[in-house]
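MODEL INPUT / OUTPUT PAIR
PAIR INDEX: 1
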Amino acid sequence: MALYPYTLQPVALNLTEAEFQQAQYELFTNASPNFGLSSLKTKEWIIIAIGIILAVAGLVFVSGYSTIIFWLMLVAVVIYLLVRTIGFKWYVKKEFEKQVAAQEMPDEMRQMKLGVQKHGLVMAMPSNQPDLMKSSQMRGMQMRAGATQQAVIPWTAIKSWDETDDYIFMMFEMKGQQGSQIVPKRLKAQKFPIDTVRQHLQEVVPIRGLQPENLQPPA
C-alpha cells in the first residue's frame, strides 16, 4: 500500500451555518435525478410525437377557425415539456430549500477539529464541552481525555460516502450508533490531506454514493 500524508495535529473544521447549507445543497444537486429532456420515458415521447404530428397535419390540411384546436395542441405539448422538466426541477429545489431552512447545524461542528491517520478519521473537541460529547454525533465512540477529547472513526466503519466540488461526505456506524461527517475541501489549504481521505474511502467503499439504507437501525 502506498504511503499517504497524514496530519500531525487535528485541523479546525470551522464549519459555518452557510457552509453547512451549501454542502447539503451541493450534495442534493449531485444526487438529484435528471430533469432534462433525456429524463422523459419512451411512452411520453411517443405521445408527444403523435400530438405534434396530428397538430402539424391539421395546420396543413385544415384552414379557418378550425386550426385553433391544432395550435392549442402544440401549445399543450410545449407546456407539458416545460412542466415536466423546468417545473419539476423548480418544485423539488423549493421543497429541498424548505427542509434545509428547518435544519440547524449540529453544535459539535462549530468547534470540531479533524485529523487523518492510517487507522481512521480523528475527531477532536475541547474537553470543556461535555454536552457536545453527549451528542448523537459522538455517542458510541471511545473518547481519549486531555486538553481535547478525541474520537476516531475507523475507515472500516464508513458505510457510504460521496463528494462534490467543495465537500466530502461520509456516513458511518459504530457500536450501533449512526453518524455522518462533512469535510470541506478548503481544509486542503491548511495541509489537511483531502487526497488521503479520498484514498482510504475508496479502499473501503469503492463505489461512491450515500446509502443511508445500508446503516443498521440502532439497537
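PAIR INDEX: 2
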Amino acid sequence: MPTTTMLDQATAMIENAWGEPIEALEILGVRRPSEDPLLRCAVHTRAALAITDSAVTVHQDRLHALSRQGYVPDFYELDRITETAVKLRVAHAESRAYLQAIRRVVEAREAAAPEVEAPAVRLAQAAVARSGNTRHAPGAAPEPSSPAAVVGPSAPTTGPRH
C-alpha cells in the first residue's frame, strides 16, 4: 500500500480549496496570476515541494541501497551513508516547510472568503435600514415599524425643498 507523500497532501489541499483539478489550477495560476494571487502562490510553492519530494525519494533510495540487509558497507561508504542521511533530513524539513506554507495559503484564502461576501451583506443591511422595514418571511405581510407608517408619510424634518 503506497504511502501518501507530502506532495500528494499538498495537491489534495489545493484541489479541495479551489475545487478544481491541479492541472487546471496550474494553468490558471500561471496564465492569470493577477486574478488569484493566492492560487499563484500555492501553485509555485507546490512546484518547489515537487522538487524536494523528488529529492526525498532519491535520498531514501540511496540510503536503502547503502544500508540494505546483508550488505556490509566499506569504510569509505560510511561517510556517504551519513551524508545521505543528513540530506534526507534536510529534504524532509524543506518539504514540511513547503507543505506548511501551502496550508497557510489555503487558510488565508478561507479567511478572505467571508470578506469577499461582506460588502454585499453590508449593502443589503444598509438598504433595509434606509427603507425602515425589517426582513420578513416571503408571503407574510410586513408589520408596520412605527405608527407613522400606518397613517402616512411624515413631514420632512429638514428645511424646505427646492
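PAIR 2 NOTE: DSSP finds five helices and no strands in the chain.
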